[in-house]
From TrEMBL:
Organism of provenance: Gluconobacter thailandicus NBRC 3257
InterPro entries named among the record's database cross-references: FPG_cat (IPR012319), FPG_Glyclase (IPR020629), FPG_N (IPR035937), H2TH_FPG (IPR015886), Ribosomal_uS13-like_H2TH (IPR010979), Znf_DNA_glyclase/AP_lyase (IPR000214)
Occurrences of domain Formamidopyrimidine-DNA glycosylase catalytic (ranges): 2-116
Keywords annotated in UniProt: DNA damage, DNA repair, DNA-binding, Glycosidase, Hydrolase, Lyase, Metal-binding, Multifunctional enzyme, Zinc, Zinc-finger
The protein, known as: Formamidopyrimidine-DNA glycosylase
Free-text remark on how the cofactor is bound: Binds 1 zinc ion per subunit.
Cofactor: Zn(2+)
Subunit record text: Monomer.
Length: 277
């Protein structure tokens, strides 16, 4: 599933192509994805100027001139591909939604597994949408400080990795970036969240922000389906220190330790048993 850096990268590409443009045509090629498309999606978007974009967790919000926002989630394997209208090329398979602007910009939502979603919400009430209202803090916001992270963890007896993936606490981190942040912070992924000290929380908050910033600058991590909005792969997978590197030498150790893998809550966790006691 695309995680925060991937969604942020897609949103930035979408914004560059569409912001300030007027939507000329909307094509809906099937009635639903994970849930039905809004019945009035085409009527609400066509003819509207695209004012701005916003990302909340892994949701992209495109705000248009009539006071509405189109909310988009890419699901497990969805892709938003940008191009030009009228190129006389065969549309990709599983392209379920197409937006075209008056200056011929084109965005196609491709989602083979149809786990993504599209909805309409009044822009002034985005935060009260049923999928957004219960979400935690943004990890790149000013709230992501060591003391705040430490306070979040004090009542959590679950493993620290599980707590960091809880969208009610912190949004959008995802499995890849939690593994990387815990490794750089020298925190074992199975430790109880409540055992994390303030010093460790300070270190962890710093690395979370740094890793996400690095990943966004690299265009995200392309492991399976994810590509950027222009169709190119991200590059952060080449900078992973532990994720997906089971059995490879630890990047920090000089003692011959290799990266280990365990399963937590059905997901693979990668770590170094020597660095992360």
């Amino acid at each position: 599933m695309p995680e925060l850096p991937e969604v942020e990268t897609v949103m930035r590409g979408f914004r560059t192509a569409f912001e300030g443009q007027r939507i000329r045509h909307v094509t809906v090629n099937r009635p639903d994805l994970r849930w039905p498309f809004p019945l009035d999606l085409r009527e609400r978007l066509e003819g509207q100027e695209v004012l701005s974009f916003h990302r909340r967790a892994k949701y992209i919000l495109m705000r248009v001139g009539n006071g509405m926002s189109m909310m988009l989630h890419l699901g497990m394997s969805g892709r938003l591909l940008l191009g030009q209208s009228g190129m006389n090329t065969t549309p990709p398979r599983h392209e379920h939604l197409v937006l075209e602007t008056e200056n011929e910009a084109r965005a196609g939502l491709v989602d083979p597994r149809r786990f993504g979603m599209v909805d309409l919400v009044p822009t002034d009430h985005e935060d009260t949408h049923r999928l957004l209202s219960g979400l935690g803090i943004e990890p790149l916001s000013d709230k992501m400080t060591g003391p705040y992270l430490h306070s979040l963890m004090q009542s959590r007896r679950t493993p620290i990795k599980t707590a960091l993936l809880d969208q009610r606490l912190i949004v959008g981190l995802g499995n890849i970036y939690v593994c990387e942040a815990l490794f750089r912070s020298h925190i074992h992924p199975t430790r109880a969240a409540t055992s994390i000290t303030l010093q460790e929380a300070n270190r962890l908050a710093t690395f979370i922000r740094a890793i996400l910033t690095e990943a966004i600058a690299s265009g995200g991590s392309s492991l399976r389906d994810y590509v950027q909005a222009d169709g190119t792969k991200g590059g952060f997978q080449d900078l992973h220190l532990v994720y997906g590197r089971e059995g490879e030498p630890c990047s920090y150790c000089a003692t011959g330790y290799t990266v280990s893998r365990i399963t937590q809550s059905g997901r693979s966790t990668f770590y170094c048993a020597n660095c992360q006691k």
